[in-house]
Amino acid sequence: MAKEASRWRVIAQTVRADIAGAGLEAGARLPSESALAARFAVNRHTVRQALQSLAEEGVITIRRGAGSFVTGRVIDYPLSAHTRFTEIMVGQGRDASGEVIDGREEAAPPPVAKALNLHGNAKVTSLRRICRADDAVIGLGWHRVPLRRFPDFGRRAAVAGGITAAFRFFGVDDYQRAYTRISARLLSRTEARMLRAPAGGAVMVTEYVNRDAAGAAIEFGETLFLPERVRLLVGGNPAAD
C-alpha cells in the first residue's frame, strides 16, 4: 500500500514537471489514463490518484469522458460598454495579439442585417480572428461590419493591427457596446482545431453589437472563449477594487 501511495506521488510530480518543461498552454490535453499507466507501469487507479491530486492543486482540469487538460492561469475578461481586447490584456500585464485567418465580403445573414440595421442586399465584411494572450490562444472571434461604410476593412485591420485601429482609420475614434449576449454550446471540430481544444468540449459564446457615438450600429461580433482559459466578468472589474 505504501509503495502504491509513493508511486502516484511520483507520477504527479513527473506530470507536473512535464507540463512546465514542455510549456504546455492552458487547455492542452494530457495523455490518457491508459497511456500514462503504460508509461509508468502501474494500474489506472494509481494514475487516477495522481491526476486527481493535480486537479486539486489546480494544475489540470479533469473532464469526464474527455480527458485531463492543463488548467493554466485563468484570464479575467470584463464585459462592459467599453470592452476592448487589447486594453484588457495589457491591463493585466499580458501581451495581446490577433491574427485574421479568414476574411470575405458577403451578403449579411438575416440576424446580422437586423442587428446592423441593414436592408435589401446589403453586404458586410466578415473577418475571423484568433485572439492570443502571451502567445496562447484564448479566443476565436467573428467581426462583421457594413461593407458600404467600411470598404476594405479587412486589409485595414491587418495593416493597422486590430479592429479598434481599423475603425479609427474610418473616423470612428470611439464606440460603445450596445449589448452582450452570453450563451454556451459545444465546439465543432473546426473551432476546436483553431482553439487547440478537444472537439465536443464546452465553449462560452459572447454575441454583441457595437455602436458609434451617433448610435449607429457598426459591428456585429461573436467570440468563443474556453472556460478553462477565460472567466467572463459582468458588472465590474475586480482588479480595479
Short summary:
The chain contains 8 helices and 10 strands. By secondary structure, it is α+β, with helices and mostly antiparallel strands.
How is this structure best described in words?
This protein is an alpha+beta fold and 241 residues long. It folds into two domains: 2-70, Winged helix-like DNA-binding domain superfamily/Winged helix DNA-binding domain (Arc Repressor Mutant, subunit A), CATH 1.10.10.10; 75-240, Chorismate lyase (3-Layer(aba) Sandwich). 33% of the residues lie in helices and 35% in strands. The chain contains eight helices and ten strands. The protein has helices spanning 2-22, 33-40, 44-57, 85-91, 110-116, 153-160, 163-169, 189-195, and strands at 60-63, 67-70, 75-79, 96-107, 123-133, 136-146, 175-186, 202-212, 217-225, 230-234. The strands form three sheets. Strands 4-5-6-9-8-7 form a six-stranded antiparallel beta sheet, with helices on both faces. The protein has a two-stranded antiparallel ribbon with strand order 1-2. It has a two-stranded parallel ribbon with strand order 3-10. Strand 1 and strand 2 (67-70) form a beta hairpin. Helix 1 (2-22) crosses helix 3 (44-57) and helix 6 (153-160) packs across helix 7. The longest helix is centred in the N-terminal third of the chain and has 21 residues, at 2-22.
